[in-house]
Every structure is written in C-alpha cells, then in structure tokens.
Amino acid sequence: MADGADAFCLREVLVAFTACLGEQREVRVDPYLAGWKGLIRFLNTLGTVFSFISKDAVTKIQILENYRNSDQREKYLTVQSMVEYELANGLVDLKKRSEHPDSGCRTFLRLHRALRWLQMFLEGLRTGEEDSKTSVICSEAYNASLANYHPWIIRKAATVAFYVLPTRNTFLENMNVGTADEAVAMLGDALPFICKVYDITEELYAQHKLLDLP
Ligand SMILES: CCCCCCCCCCCCC/C=C/[C@@H](O)[C@H](COP(=O)(O)O)NC(=O)CCCCCCCCCCCCCCC
C-alpha cells in the first residue's frame, strides 16, 4: 500500500471514533462518518471481492453526508439531535419503508449495527494468537452481529469474501502504525471509545424503540 495522503492509517480512524464523543454523551455525526470513510479506504485495498460491501457502506455514508450538507445540517450534528428532529417531524418510516425510505435514523442504524461487528472484530484481532486466521476472527464477529440482519445471499457472499483476508499479523502490519504489537496496543487504547459510542447509540435507539427500523 502506498504511503500517499490517502493511505489507510489505523490511528486516524481510531482518533475519529474517539472524537465522536461529546461531553454530554452526545455522539457527533461528522467524526463518525470520517471514521467509516477511513475504514472503507482500507477495505478497498483488500480487493474487489469486498466492493459490494464498500458500495453499500458508501451509499449510506453519502445519505448522511447529504443531510449534513442540507439546510437542516444543524439537526444532524449529533445522533441525539437527528433522532429528536426526525421523530418530531414524522420523518421516519417506523413500520415499513414508504415515504421516508432513507431517513437519517434508519441509515445510521445500519452503520451502528456494523459498528458492533467492528468492535468485535477489532477485539478478536487484539486478543488473537499471532498466527490466527483473520477470516475466522472476521466471520465469528460477523455471525455474532451483522449476520442476524442479513438475508442468506448476503451472508454467503460475505463469508466467501472473508476467505481472502491475510493472517492476523500481516493484517495488523497493514494498518500503518508500526509493528503488530504496536497496532494491538493502539487497539487496546481505542476500543473503549468505540464501545462507548456503540453503547450510547444503542441506548438511545432502544429508548425510542428504533432498533428494528425497516
Ligand atoms: C476486514 C474485512 C471486512 C469485512 C466487512 C464485514 C462486514 C460485512 C458486511 C456485509 C454487508 C454486505 C453489503 C450489503 C448490505 C446491506 O444489505 C445491509 C442492509 O442495508 P439495507 O437495509 O439498506 O438493505 N447493509 C448493512 O448492513 C451495512 C453494512 C455496512 C458494512 C460496513 C463494513 C465496513 C468494513 C470496513 C472494514 C475495515 C476493517 C479495518 C479494520 C481496522
């Protein structure tokens, strides 16, 4: 992977997720999307077999960025303000996708579910044996999280794609933060922030009964 301005760096991604957390437990949307964009850049270096995943993620990021660039941008500054604004104005399809198929709330929920996968995957990488298979860590994380929301055909395609992932140490060394051990140390520092972002969002969505948005 080249060392150009676009090269993936784990540090930047983790800093972005850390920057999501506000003092009042608010979750800021811009750094959240920046974190995902960094991850997608990395995903794109892993091969075209992952294109169907990155395309879907990019579409969702774009929907949320469009809200952030619209006249209502302030309402989408944090997940909390987005939920409040969209619910108060009837902008969320609660039972079936119809008038508001791409609400901020349902779109963010898809990334939120993927964040659970990320959390489990990074934790698996952090605690895994040196020569363990990234594909196994990845499928275990996937099966315990996102897979529950995907139809059979997507689960199948994702599982096939995971096979091409390199071994754990090569994967960690590709993160551009030094040795595999250094990457592990950085994951240890950053994972609590990712967990916190996940937990706060989960609690907010549960409180408003939004966890099953179509
Ligand atoms: C390192 C290998 C990365 C493997 C990625 C594992 C996640 C597998 C996700 C498979 C998603 C398949 C694409 C389609 C999904 C949609 O059907 C589905 C539902 O959307 P809908 O309700 O609008 O129809 N969409 C979703 O669930 C959102 C998926 C978003 C996935 C983002 C994954 C980004 C992965 C970035 C990996 C980078 C790893 C770097 C580690 C430091």
Automatic annotation (TrEMBL):
Decide whether keyword Translocase is in the record. Answer: no
InterPro entries in alphabetical order: GLTP_sf (IPR036497), Glycolipid_transfer_prot_dom (IPR014830)
| PANTHER family from the UniProt entry | CERAMIDE-1-PHOSPHATE TRANSFER PROTEIN, GLYCOLIPID TRANSFER PROTEIN-RELATED
Main localization category: membrane
Domain of life of the source: Eukaryota
Topology class, membrane: Peripheral membrane protein
Coiled-coil segments, which residues? Answer: none
Question: Source gene?
Answer: CPTP
Which organism does this sequence originate in? Answer: Pelodiscus sinensis (Chinese softshell turtle)
Q: Where in the cell is it found?
A: Cell membrane; Cytoplasm, Cytosol; Endosome membrane; Golgi apparatus, trans-Golgi network membrane
Q: What name does this protein carry?
A: Ceramide-1-phosphate transfer protein
